[in-house]
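On clarity, I found the account of how folds are encoded harder to follow than it need be. What matters is that the chain and its backbone geometry are given together, residue for residue. The format is easy to grasp once an entry is in front of the reader. For illustration, here is how one protein appears when written out as sequence plus structure tokens.
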Amino acid sequence: MTRLLSRVDGWDLLLVVLLTATVTLGALLTPNFLSAFNLSQAASGAAEKGLLVLPMVLLIIAREIDLSVASVLALASVILGVLVQGGVPLPFAIPIVIVAGGALGALNGALVTAIGLPSLVVTLGTMALFRGLGYILLGAASINAFPDALTNFGVDDVPGTRIPLVIVPFLVLAPVFAIALQLTPVGKRIYAIGGNPSAALYSGIAVARVKFSLFVVSGMVSAIAGVVYTARLSNARANNALGMELDVITIALLGGVSVWGGKGKLTGVMLALLLIATIRNLLGLNQVGGDAQGTVIGLLLIVSLLIGNAAEFLAFALKSSEAKAKMGG
């Protein structure tokens, strides 16, 4: 019973049930939901969120958060557009954009680790700052002319399949993040920091350095998501991905990552990503607008927090009662 309340296996099982029910209802009630074209479009639409959630999971496990990921994506998109418009070749422009994303993440990390400001407050501020920089560079205009190599990447499939190319960066990075989190010393340090930062520090873990690195990685992956977003829509503008951070945080917490840090795995997060993408796709097919979709995602975020906290409380209470019983015995 303790295992079921630990929000690992039991939580993943719940997500599988919810995902199965959602897909079944969609197949029964929505025409063309299971068509190859629609599934390909749904996967394509989840490409950026899948990328953004990878570093977000690591940060939340380490008791931090990055609310600026969607703004970094937007600014990276703008920088890419400006570079391409200025004649910079794509093979040079994309690395510059990724480095710029790392620099934005480093700013977040420095404010959190060197100055000691809360990441919630820091990234709330840089969320507005980075998007504002996008407006300074491009204003309310947009750039829509990109090389064929980029636009083809945004619309083509992996040869011989219906898998969109834009999902490939996520499919490559997801196993890397999963292995790093579960099977390497870095992952153990992240869990230790999230479980008890003071104990981690006294045990010799360079807490500030690990957290700083996580913010840099978050910025770089967000910039990659910006390139993917630009390729998929053939559009660079400052208001790209507006509000996407809500989906990303919802996916992480719905996937079983504890808001208090120290707990979570990418298996549950991947299930939550599929669930959110499916719900978004079904709502879109049924002509439900973006604002209403945002309401549904917000409700899912609240529900996941309530259920997750209740499960942790019950697990703690059960362990306490078992410890008392052993002492009494």
